Amino acid sequence: MFNSLSDRLTATFKNLRGRGRLSEADIDATVREIRRALLDADVAVPVVREFTAAVRERALSAEVSGALNPAQQVVKIVNEELVEILGGHTRPLSFAKVAPTVIMLAGLQGAGKTTLAGKLSLALREQGHTPLLVAADLQRPNAVTQLSVVAERAGVPVYAPHPGNQGAETDVVIGDPVGVARDGVAFARDKQHDVVIVDTAGRLGVDQVLMQQAADIRAAISPDEVLFVIDAMIGQDAVATASAFLEGVDFTGVVLSKLDGDARGGAALSVAKVTGRPIMFASTGEKLTDFEVFHPDRMASRILDMGDVLTLIEQAERAFDAEQAEKMAQKVATGQDFSLADFLVQMQQMKKLGSMKKMLGMLPGMGQMREQLENFDEREVDRIEAIIHSMTPAERENPKIINGSRRARIARGSGTTTTAVNQLLERFEAAQKMMRQMARGGGMPGMPGGMP
Ligand code: GDP
Protein backbone atom coordinates (compact mmCIF):
# COMPACT_ATOMS: atom_id res chain seq x y z
CA MET A 1 0.00 0.00 0.00
CA PHE A 2 1.00 3.60 -0.55
CA ASN A 3 3.99 2.38 -2.52
CA SER A 4 3.94 4.90 -5.31
CA LEU A 5 2.90 7.76 -3.04
CA SER A 6 5.72 6.83 -0.72
CA ASP A 7 8.24 6.68 -3.58
CA ARG A 8 7.13 10.02 -4.95
CA LEU A 9 7.33 11.78 -1.62
CA THR A 10 10.73 10.38 -0.71
CA ALA A 11 12.05 11.34 -4.17
CA THR A 12 10.73 14.88 -3.67
CA PHE A 13 12.50 15.19 -0.35
CA LYS A 14 15.70 13.77 -1.76
CA ASN A 15 15.84 16.77 -4.09
CA LEU A 16 15.83 19.08 -1.12
CA ARG A 17 18.54 17.34 0.78
CA GLY A 18 21.76 19.20 1.31
CA ARG A 19 20.28 22.62 0.58
CA GLY A 20 21.33 25.24 3.07
CA ARG A 21 18.42 27.54 2.44
CA LEU A 22 15.14 27.00 0.69
CA SER A 23 13.82 29.79 -1.50
CA GLU A 24 10.14 30.39 -1.98
CA ALA A 25 10.54 28.88 -5.45
CA ASP A 26 12.08 25.71 -3.93
CA ILE A 27 9.18 25.40 -1.57
CA ASP A 28 6.59 25.99 -4.28
CA ALA A 29 8.20 23.34 -6.45
CA THR A 30 8.17 20.89 -3.55
CA VAL A 31 4.56 21.63 -2.71
CA ARG A 32 3.63 21.16 -6.38
CA GLU A 33 5.27 17.74 -6.37
CA ILE A 34 3.48 16.77 -3.19
CA ARG A 35 0.15 17.91 -4.67
CA ARG A 36 0.70 15.80 -7.79
CA ALA A 37 1.72 12.77 -5.76
CA LEU A 38 -1.39 13.02 -3.58
CA LEU A 39 -3.74 13.51 -6.53
CA ASP A 40 -2.20 10.53 -8.30
CA ALA A 41 -2.77 8.49 -5.14
CA ASP A 42 -6.50 9.28 -5.45
CA VAL A 43 -6.64 11.54 -2.44
CA ALA A 44 -9.77 13.71 -2.60
CA VAL A 45 -9.20 17.15 -4.11
CA PRO A 46 -10.37 19.25 -1.14
CA VAL A 47 -8.12 17.24 1.16
CA VAL A 48 -5.15 17.75 -1.14
CA ARG A 49 -5.85 21.45 -1.33
CA GLU A 50 -6.02 21.88 2.42
CA PHE A 51 -2.98 19.70 2.99
CA THR A 52 -0.71 21.48 0.53
CA ALA A 53 -1.85 24.91 1.71
CA ALA A 54 -0.93 24.00 5.28
CA VAL A 55 2.45 22.56 4.25
CA ARG A 56 3.26 25.60 2.12
CA GLU A 57 2.34 28.09 4.81
CA ARG A 58 4.41 26.35 7.43
CA ALA A 59 7.31 25.76 5.07
CA LEU A 60 7.54 29.46 4.31
CA SER A 61 7.52 30.40 7.95
CA ALA A 62 10.35 30.96 10.36
CA GLU A 63 9.96 27.35 11.45
CA VAL A 64 11.88 26.36 8.32
CA SER A 65 14.04 29.36 7.40
CA GLY A 66 15.52 29.51 10.87
CA ALA A 67 16.17 25.77 11.05
CA LEU A 68 19.62 24.24 10.84
CA ASN A 69 18.44 21.77 8.26
CA PRO A 70 15.53 23.21 6.29
CA ALA A 71 14.94 20.08 4.20
CA GLN A 72 14.52 17.96 7.30
CA GLN A 73 12.19 20.55 8.67
CA VAL A 74 10.00 20.26 5.57
CA VAL A 75 9.82 16.47 6.00
CA LYS A 76 8.84 17.01 9.61
CA ILE A 77 6.06 19.36 8.57
CA VAL A 78 4.74 16.94 5.94
CA ASN A 79 4.85 14.18 8.53
CA GLU A 80 2.88 16.23 11.04
CA GLU A 81 0.31 17.29 8.48
CA LEU A 82 -0.08 13.68 7.33
CA VAL A 83 -0.73 12.60 10.90
CA GLU A 84 -3.30 15.37 11.08
CA ILE A 85 -5.29 14.34 8.01
CA LEU A 86 -5.16 10.72 9.15
CA GLY A 87 -7.04 11.80 12.25
CA GLY A 88 -4.31 13.00 14.61
CA HIS A 89 -4.66 10.50 17.42
CA THR A 90 -5.18 6.81 17.86
CA ARG A 91 -8.78 6.29 18.79
CA PRO A 92 -9.34 3.13 20.83
CA LEU A 93 -12.67 1.31 21.00
CA SER A 94 -14.93 2.76 23.60
CA PHE A 95 -16.54 0.22 25.85
CA ALA A 96 -19.97 0.61 27.43
CA LYS A 97 -20.14 1.19 31.18
CA VAL A 98 -22.75 -1.52 31.38
CA ALA A 99 -21.99 -4.64 29.35
CA PRO A 100 -22.42 -5.65 26.65
CA THR A 101 -20.62 -3.15 24.46
CA VAL A 102 -22.49 -3.16 21.16
CA ILE A 103 -20.48 -2.75 17.97
CA MET A 104 -22.31 -2.52 14.67
CA LEU A 105 -20.58 -2.97 11.31
CA ALA A 106 -21.76 -1.18 8.18
CA GLY A 107 -20.45 -0.83 4.65
CA LEU A 108 -20.87 -1.92 1.06
CA GLN A 109 -21.01 -5.57 0.10
CA GLY A 110 -17.51 -6.93 -0.30
CA ALA A 111 -16.00 -4.17 1.81
CA GLY A 112 -14.71 -6.75 4.25
CA LYS A 113 -17.24 -6.52 7.10
CA THR A 114 -17.57 -10.23 7.74
CA THR A 115 -13.83 -10.74 7.64
CA LEU A 116 -13.42 -7.82 10.00
CA ALA A 117 -16.03 -9.26 12.38
CA GLY A 118 -13.77 -12.32 12.70
CA LYS A 119 -10.59 -10.29 13.11
CA LEU A 120 -12.02 -7.93 15.67
CA SER A 121 -13.59 -10.71 17.69
CA LEU A 122 -10.32 -12.65 17.74
CA ALA A 123 -8.40 -9.58 18.86
CA LEU A 124 -10.96 -8.89 21.59
CA ARG A 125 -10.92 -12.49 22.71
CA GLU A 126 -7.13 -12.34 23.00
CA GLN A 127 -7.55 -9.32 25.24
CA GLY A 128 -9.78 -11.31 27.56
CA HIS A 129 -13.18 -10.24 26.29
CA THR A 130 -16.00 -12.64 25.54
CA PRO A 131 -17.41 -11.43 22.24
CA LEU A 132 -20.49 -12.74 20.48
CA LEU A 133 -21.01 -12.29 16.74
CA VAL A 134 -24.48 -11.59 15.44
CA ALA A 135 -25.34 -12.40 11.83
CA ALA A 136 -27.77 -9.70 10.81
CA ASP A 137 -26.71 -9.81 7.17
CA LEU A 138 -29.65 -11.68 5.71
CA GLN A 139 -29.29 -10.17 2.27
CA ARG A 140 -26.80 -12.60 0.83
CA PRO A 141 -27.75 -16.25 1.15
CA ASN A 142 -24.22 -17.13 2.07
CA ALA A 143 -23.54 -14.42 4.58
CA VAL A 144 -24.72 -16.25 7.69
CA THR A 145 -22.67 -19.32 6.82
CA GLN A 146 -19.65 -17.15 6.05
CA LEU A 147 -19.89 -15.42 9.40
CA SER A 148 -20.22 -18.77 11.15
CA VAL A 149 -17.04 -19.99 9.45
CA VAL A 150 -15.15 -16.87 10.46
CA ALA A 151 -16.50 -17.11 14.01
CA GLU A 152 -15.36 -20.67 14.33
CA ARG A 153 -11.87 -19.79 13.19
CA ALA A 154 -11.79 -16.96 15.71
CA GLY A 155 -13.09 -19.28 18.43
CA VAL A 156 -16.05 -17.02 19.08
CA PRO A 157 -19.74 -18.02 19.22
CA VAL A 158 -22.19 -16.72 16.69
CA TYR A 159 -25.83 -15.86 17.02
CA ALA A 160 -27.53 -16.56 13.72
CA PRO A 161 -31.05 -17.03 12.49
CA HIS A 162 -30.41 -20.68 11.76
CA PRO A 163 -32.97 -23.20 12.87
CA GLY A 164 -30.16 -25.03 14.67
CA ASN A 165 -28.79 -22.02 16.49
CA GLN A 166 -32.05 -20.40 17.19
CA GLY A 167 -33.20 -22.84 19.79
CA ALA A 168 -36.06 -21.99 22.05
CA GLU A 169 -34.62 -18.66 23.11
CA THR A 170 -35.80 -16.72 20.12
CA ASP A 171 -38.63 -16.59 17.69
CA VAL A 172 -36.81 -14.59 15.06
CA VAL A 173 -38.39 -14.51 11.65
CA ILE A 174 -35.71 -15.35 9.12
CA GLY A 175 -35.38 -12.34 6.86
CA ASP A 176 -35.87 -9.78 9.59
CA PRO A 177 -32.40 -8.32 10.19
CA VAL A 178 -33.59 -5.72 12.68
CA GLY A 179 -35.18 -8.47 14.78
CA VAL A 180 -32.08 -10.66 14.57
CA ALA A 181 -29.86 -7.75 15.64
CA ARG A 182 -32.09 -6.84 18.55
CA ASP A 183 -32.43 -10.42 19.74
CA GLY A 184 -28.73 -11.04 19.26
CA VAL A 185 -27.90 -8.18 21.62
CA ALA A 186 -30.46 -9.44 24.14
CA PHE A 187 -28.97 -12.92 23.86
CA ALA A 188 -25.49 -11.50 24.52
CA ARG A 189 -26.73 -9.69 27.59
CA ASP A 190 -28.45 -12.80 28.82
CA LYS A 191 -25.40 -15.00 28.29
CA GLN A 192 -23.06 -12.37 29.71
CA HIS A 193 -20.96 -11.72 26.66
CA ASP A 194 -19.25 -8.41 27.30
CA VAL A 195 -19.01 -7.40 23.63
CA VAL A 196 -21.41 -8.05 20.80
CA ILE A 197 -20.49 -7.43 17.17
CA VAL A 198 -23.39 -7.10 14.76
CA ASP A 199 -22.64 -7.75 11.08
CA THR A 200 -25.10 -6.07 8.75
CA ALA A 201 -25.92 -6.41 5.07
CA GLY A 202 -24.17 -4.52 2.32
CA ARG A 203 -25.16 -3.80 -1.25
CA LEU A 204 -22.92 -3.40 -4.21
CA GLY A 205 -23.72 0.29 -4.39
CA VAL A 206 -25.17 2.73 -1.95
CA ASP A 207 -28.96 2.44 -2.01
CA GLN A 208 -31.86 3.75 -0.03
CA VAL A 209 -33.22 0.42 1.18
CA LEU A 210 -29.83 -0.63 2.50
CA MET A 211 -29.34 2.68 4.27
CA GLN A 212 -32.77 2.50 5.83
CA GLN A 213 -32.18 -1.04 7.05
CA ALA A 214 -28.85 -0.10 8.60
CA ALA A 215 -30.42 2.97 10.21
CA ASP A 216 -33.25 0.81 11.59
CA ILE A 217 -30.77 -1.66 13.06
CA ARG A 218 -28.87 1.19 14.59
CA ALA A 219 -32.05 2.57 16.14
CA ALA A 220 -33.01 -0.86 17.47
CA ILE A 221 -29.72 -1.73 19.18
CA SER A 222 -28.23 1.69 20.11
CA PRO A 223 -24.66 0.61 19.44
CA ASP A 224 -21.73 2.06 21.36
CA GLU A 225 -19.70 2.00 18.17
CA VAL A 226 -20.77 1.94 14.54
CA LEU A 227 -17.79 0.98 12.43
CA PHE A 228 -17.92 1.85 8.77
CA VAL A 229 -15.79 -0.63 6.83
CA ILE A 230 -14.38 0.64 3.58
CA ASP A 231 -12.28 -1.07 0.95
CA ALA A 232 -9.13 1.00 0.55
CA MET A 233 -8.97 -0.01 -3.09
CA ILE A 234 -12.09 1.87 -4.14
CA GLY A 235 -10.09 5.02 -4.72
CA GLN A 236 -11.99 8.15 -5.62
CA ASP A 237 -15.35 6.59 -4.74
CA ALA A 238 -14.31 6.44 -1.11
CA VAL A 239 -15.41 9.94 -0.31
CA ALA A 240 -18.88 9.63 -1.89
CA THR A 241 -19.50 6.23 -0.24
CA ALA A 242 -18.31 7.41 3.16
CA SER A 243 -20.40 10.56 2.94
CA ALA A 244 -23.51 8.55 2.02
CA PHE A 245 -23.05 6.27 5.03
CA LEU A 246 -22.33 9.22 7.27
CA GLU A 247 -25.60 10.78 6.27
CA GLY A 248 -27.65 7.58 6.09
CA VAL A 249 -26.50 5.70 9.19
CA ASP A 250 -23.78 7.81 10.76
CA PHE A 251 -20.79 6.04 12.24
CA THR A 252 -18.34 6.52 15.08
CA GLY A 253 -15.25 5.18 13.36
CA VAL A 254 -13.78 3.89 10.12
CA VAL A 255 -12.08 0.60 9.34
CA LEU A 256 -9.89 0.55 6.24
CA SER A 257 -9.82 -2.90 4.71
CA LYS A 258 -7.55 -4.44 2.09
CA LEU A 259 -4.70 -2.11 2.92
CA ASP A 260 -2.43 -4.96 1.85
CA GLY A 261 -3.42 -4.49 -1.77
CA ASP A 262 -1.58 -2.13 -4.06
CA ALA A 263 -4.16 0.49 -3.31
CA ARG A 264 -3.05 3.97 -4.04
CA GLY A 265 -4.08 4.94 -0.56
CA GLY A 266 -6.40 7.79 -1.40
CA ALA A 267 -9.25 6.39 0.66
CA ALA A 268 -7.08 6.23 3.74
CA LEU A 269 -5.94 9.77 3.29
CA SER A 270 -9.34 11.24 2.56
CA VAL A 271 -11.92 9.51 4.69
CA ALA A 272 -10.97 10.71 8.15
CA LYS A 273 -10.65 14.29 7.00
CA VAL A 274 -13.82 14.34 4.92
CA THR A 275 -16.08 12.61 7.46
CA GLY A 276 -14.50 13.89 10.64
CA ARG A 277 -14.59 10.32 11.97
CA PRO A 278 -11.39 8.59 13.08
CA ILE A 279 -9.89 5.59 11.32
CA MET A 280 -9.77 3.02 14.10
CA PHE A 281 -8.55 -0.20 12.52
CA ALA A 282 -6.79 -1.44 9.42
CA SER A 283 -7.41 -4.79 7.81
CA THR A 284 -4.36 -5.99 5.93
CA GLY A 285 -5.02 -9.45 4.54
CA GLU A 286 -7.26 -12.47 4.40
CA LYS A 287 -5.95 -14.10 7.59
CA LEU A 288 -7.68 -13.32 10.88
CA THR A 289 -4.48 -11.96 12.36
CA ASP A 290 -4.00 -9.49 9.49
CA PHE A 291 -5.46 -6.74 11.56
CA GLU A 292 -4.06 -3.67 13.26
CA VAL A 293 -5.16 -0.80 15.42
CA PHE A 294 -4.77 2.25 13.21
CA HIS A 295 -2.22 4.72 14.50
CA PRO A 296 -2.14 7.92 12.42
CA ASP A 297 1.45 8.68 13.40
CA ARG A 298 2.74 5.23 12.52
CA MET A 299 0.88 5.25 9.22
CA ALA A 300 2.41 8.62 8.34
CA SER A 301 5.83 7.15 9.13
CA ARG A 302 5.18 4.26 6.81
CA ILE A 303 4.09 6.57 4.02
CA LEU A 304 7.27 8.60 4.42
CA ASP A 305 9.30 5.38 4.55
CA MET A 306 10.38 6.07 8.08
CA GLY A 307 9.24 2.58 9.06
CA ASP A 308 6.76 1.36 11.62
CA VAL A 309 8.93 -0.39 14.12
CA LEU A 310 6.38 -0.14 16.91
CA THR A 311 3.76 -2.16 15.05
CA LEU A 312 6.43 -4.67 14.12
CA ILE A 313 7.39 -5.13 17.76
CA GLU A 314 3.77 -5.48 18.85
CA GLN A 315 3.12 -8.14 16.27
CA ALA A 316 6.25 -9.95 17.30
CA GLU A 317 5.16 -9.88 20.93
CA ARG A 318 1.83 -11.32 19.94
CA ALA A 319 3.40 -14.23 18.07
CA PHE A 320 6.43 -14.99 20.17
CA ASP A 321 6.84 -17.04 23.23
CA ALA A 322 8.09 -14.44 25.70
CA GLU A 323 10.43 -16.72 27.61
CA GLN A 324 12.00 -18.14 24.50
CA ALA A 325 12.34 -14.66 23.01
CA GLU A 326 14.12 -13.49 26.13
CA LYS A 327 16.58 -16.39 25.98
CA MET A 328 17.19 -15.71 22.33
CA ALA A 329 17.70 -12.00 22.89
CA GLN A 330 20.28 -12.89 25.49
CA LYS A 331 22.20 -15.10 23.10
CA VAL A 332 22.03 -12.48 20.38
CA ALA A 333 23.11 -9.71 22.71
CA THR A 334 26.16 -11.60 23.94
CA GLY A 335 26.95 -13.14 20.58
CA GLN A 336 27.51 -16.46 22.29
CA ASP A 337 26.25 -19.95 21.70
CA PHE A 338 23.97 -18.94 18.90
CA SER A 339 23.55 -22.19 17.02
CA LEU A 340 21.67 -23.33 13.95
CA ALA A 341 19.15 -24.88 16.32
CA ASP A 342 18.45 -21.41 17.71
CA PHE A 343 18.32 -20.08 14.21
CA LEU A 344 15.67 -22.67 13.39
CA VAL A 345 13.57 -21.72 16.41
CA GLN A 346 13.80 -18.12 15.36
CA MET A 347 12.73 -18.92 11.82
CA GLN A 348 9.75 -20.83 13.11
CA GLN A 349 8.72 -17.95 15.31
CA MET A 350 9.09 -15.57 12.42
CA LYS A 351 6.84 -17.78 10.38
CA LYS A 352 4.17 -17.51 13.02
CA LEU A 353 4.20 -13.79 12.42
CA GLY A 354 2.89 -14.33 8.94
CA SER A 355 4.31 -12.89 5.82
CA MET A 356 8.00 -12.08 6.01
CA LYS A 357 7.46 -9.59 3.23
CA LYS A 358 4.92 -7.65 5.22
CA MET A 359 7.14 -7.60 8.28
CA LEU A 360 10.24 -6.50 6.45
CA GLY A 361 8.19 -3.78 4.80
CA MET A 362 7.70 -2.13 8.18
CA LEU A 363 11.40 -1.46 8.62
CA PRO A 364 12.61 2.07 7.89
CA GLY A 365 14.05 2.61 4.43
CA MET A 366 12.57 -0.57 3.05
CA GLY A 367 10.81 1.47 0.39
CA GLN A 368 14.19 1.68 -1.34
CA MET A 369 14.43 -2.09 -1.41
CA ARG A 370 10.94 -2.74 -2.62
CA GLU A 371 12.09 -4.78 -5.59
CA GLN A 372 14.09 -7.20 -3.49
CA LEU A 373 11.17 -7.38 -1.13
CA GLU A 374 8.76 -8.20 -3.95
CA ASN A 375 11.07 -10.99 -5.04
CA PHE A 376 11.34 -12.42 -1.59
CA ASP A 377 10.24 -16.02 -1.77
CA GLU A 378 8.34 -17.04 1.35
CA ARG A 379 9.20 -20.66 0.60
CA GLU A 380 12.85 -19.88 1.26
CA VAL A 381 12.03 -20.17 4.94
CA ASP A 382 10.66 -23.68 4.40
CA ARG A 383 13.81 -24.68 2.52
CA ILE A 384 16.04 -23.41 5.30
CA GLU A 385 13.94 -25.26 7.81
CA ALA A 386 14.24 -28.48 5.81
CA ILE A 387 18.01 -28.12 5.60
CA ILE A 388 18.44 -27.58 9.33
CA HIS A 389 16.10 -30.48 10.05
CA SER A 390 18.34 -32.75 8.00
CA MET A 391 21.34 -32.04 10.20
CA THR A 392 22.25 -33.96 13.32
CA PRO A 393 21.89 -32.15 16.67
CA ALA A 394 25.68 -31.97 16.93
CA GLU A 395 25.89 -30.36 13.51
CA ARG A 396 23.26 -27.81 14.44
CA GLU A 397 25.29 -26.82 17.48
CA ASN A 398 28.54 -26.68 15.60
CA PRO A 399 28.11 -26.40 11.83
CA LYS A 400 31.89 -26.30 11.35
CA ILE A 401 31.95 -30.10 11.58
CA ILE A 402 29.81 -30.45 8.44
CA ASN A 403 32.15 -31.68 5.71
CA GLY A 404 31.63 -32.04 1.97
CA SER A 405 29.99 -35.43 1.99
CA ARG A 406 27.69 -34.48 4.85
CA ARG A 407 26.68 -31.36 2.90
CA ALA A 408 25.68 -33.51 -0.06
CA ARG A 409 23.82 -35.86 2.24
CA ILE A 410 21.96 -32.96 3.94
CA ALA A 411 21.04 -31.56 0.54
CA ARG A 412 19.56 -34.91 -0.47
CA GLY A 413 17.78 -35.31 2.83
CA SER A 414 16.18 -31.91 2.62
CA GLY A 415 15.33 -32.05 -1.07
CA THR A 416 17.56 -29.08 -1.79
CA THR A 417 20.98 -28.69 -3.39
CA THR A 418 24.51 -28.62 -2.02
CA THR A 419 24.68 -24.99 -3.14
CA ALA A 420 21.66 -24.18 -0.98
CA VAL A 421 23.26 -25.92 2.01
CA ASN A 422 26.53 -24.06 1.42
CA GLN A 423 24.72 -20.76 1.15
CA LEU A 424 22.88 -21.30 4.38
CA LEU A 425 26.07 -22.23 6.23
CA GLU A 426 27.90 -19.21 4.85
CA ARG A 427 25.08 -16.93 5.77
CA PHE A 428 24.84 -18.37 9.22
CA GLU A 429 28.54 -17.92 9.79
CA ALA A 430 28.36 -14.32 8.63
CA ALA A 431 25.39 -13.68 10.91
CA GLN A 432 27.20 -15.23 13.84
CA LYS A 433 30.21 -13.05 13.18
CA MET A 434 28.02 -9.97 12.95
CA MET A 435 26.36 -10.80 16.23
CA ARG A 436 29.67 -11.21 17.97
CA GLN A 437 30.83 -7.89 16.60
CA MET A 438 27.66 -6.18 17.70
CA ALA A 439 27.94 -7.73 21.11
CA ARG A 440 31.46 -6.38 21.44
CA GLY A 441 30.44 -2.96 20.17
CA GLY A 442 27.40 -2.97 22.40
CA GLY A 443 25.24 -1.97 19.46
CA MET A 444 21.60 -2.84 19.00
CA PRO A 445 21.30 -6.17 17.30
CA GLY A 446 19.17 -5.91 14.23
CA MET A 447 17.62 -8.89 12.56
CA PRO A 448 19.89 -11.75 13.43
CA GLY A 449 20.43 -14.41 10.89
CA GLY A 450 20.67 -12.09 7.95
CA MET A 451 17.75 -12.25 5.64
CA PRO A 452 18.12 -14.39 2.56
P1 GDP B 1 -18.48 -8.18 3.34
O1 GDP B 1 -19.35 -8.42 2.14
O2 GDP B 1 -18.36 -6.72 3.64
O3 GDP B 1 -18.84 -8.99 4.53
O4 GDP B 1 -17.00 -8.58 2.88
P2 GDP B 1 -16.19 -9.92 3.19
O5 GDP B 1 -15.70 -9.91 4.57
O6 GDP B 1 -16.96 -11.07 2.73
O7 GDP B 1 -14.92 -9.68 2.25
C1 GDP B 1 -15.00 -9.67 0.83
C2 GDP B 1 -13.74 -10.27 0.25
O8 GDP B 1 -12.61 -9.49 0.57
C3 GDP B 1 -13.43 -11.65 0.78
O9 GDP B 1 -12.95 -12.43 -0.29
C4 GDP B 1 -12.35 -11.43 1.81
O10 GDP B 1 -11.50 -12.55 1.94
C5 GDP B 1 -11.63 -10.26 1.23
N1 GDP B 1 -10.99 -9.42 2.26
C6 GDP B 1 -11.56 -8.88 3.37
N2 GDP B 1 -10.67 -8.14 4.06
C7 GDP B 1 -9.50 -8.21 3.37
C8 GDP B 1 -8.19 -7.63 3.57
O11 GDP B 1 -7.90 -6.89 4.51
N3 GDP B 1 -7.25 -7.93 2.62
C9 GDP B 1 -7.54 -8.73 1.56
N4 GDP B 1 -6.55 -8.97 0.69
N5 GDP B 1 -8.73 -9.27 1.35
C10 GDP B 1 -9.71 -9.03 2.23
From TrEMBL:
Keywords: Cytoplasm, GTP-binding, Hydrolase, Nucleotide-binding, Ribonucleoprotein, RNA-binding, Signal recognition particle. It is found in: Cytoplasm. It is an enzyme of class 3 (hydrolase). It catalyses: GTP + H2O = GDP + phosphate + H(+). Its EC number is 3.6.5.4. Its main location: cytoplasm. GTP binds at residues 107-114, 199-203, 257-260. Residues 278-291 form the SRP54-type proteins GTP-binding domain. One of its GO terms (molecular function) is GTPase activity. GO terms for biological process: SRP-dependent cotranslational protein targeting to membrane. Composed of three domains: the N-terminal N domain, which is responsible for interactions with the ribosome, the central G domain, which binds GTP, and the C-terminal M domain, which binds the RNA and the signal sequence of the RNC. Part of the signal recognition particle protein translocation system, which is composed of SRP and FtsY. Involved in targeting and insertion of nascent membrane proteins into the cytoplasmic membrane. Binds to the hydrophobic signal sequence of the ribosome-nascent chain (RNC) as it emerges from the ribosomes. The SRP-RNC complex is then targeted to the cytoplasmic membrane where it interacts with the SRP receptor FtsY. Belongs to the GTP-binding SRP family. SRP54 subfamily. This is Signal recognition particle protein. The chain holds residues 1 to 452 of 538 of the full protein.
